[in-house]
Design goal:
Layout (H helix, E strand, L loop, with lengths): L2 H11 L4 E7 L2 E6 L4 H10 L7 E9 L19 H4 L23 E9 L4 E8 L7 E3 L8 H12 L2 E3 L28 E6 L4 E6 L23 H4 L1
Parallel strand pairs: 2-5, 6-7
Antiparallel strand pairs: 1-2, 3-4, 4-5, 8-9
Amino acid sequence: MNTADLSQALARHFPSELQSNVIAHDEVTVEVSAAHLLSVCTRLRDDENLKFEQLIDLCGVDYSAYGNIEWATESTTNSGFSRAVEPAAGARLRFGDQPAYVNTDRPRFAVVYHLLSLSHNHRLRLRVFCDDEAMPVVPSVVEIWPSANWFEREAFDLYGILFSGHPDLRRILTDYGFIGHPFRKDFPLIGNVEMIYDETQKRVVYQPVSIEPRVLVPRVIRHDERYHELSDAEEE
């Protein structure tokens, strides 16, 4: 089954549940509401014509800066790169600072699922948006695909997305007392404290952060002869 056939099959199986059904980069991406997530996922797994038995990956997405272009890599000026001169987002934020960008084209948070059918050898990308930005919640799919357990904990830890029905929703990567969610677009790269090992006290201690912000500047992409591969005749 190719991507076009899969997209058409999904449209037939879910005539009212799918909010979008597109093909991009030779991959089918469908979007469902949080209310239909569990019923759609269960049928994706159990239907003989679909049989998406395996959840390969699950991740959170923060669309608050979607469409913002901070790096002008196709051209350069005497004043330098755009973000290095006038940062548009959180490159130099500290706790308490407010980012300048606002994206109202879509809900801010989403969860993306990558599914694999071992029986039919096809893949699917499924996306569900969280209705409430202040309290992003989607149902847990652990009962459908047990591999979602740690994936959902990771999305909770890094994005603050809650998964209702998860058996053990707690942080998995950050420290026990960590505040905030590091993969959110408004999370500052410079925090309040840093952790070091104190030789005199023989233990780990926290102290005010001493690292100054540093903006990495990318290479400019130039479309000229310097980056063209030479033919054999030219090399000779």
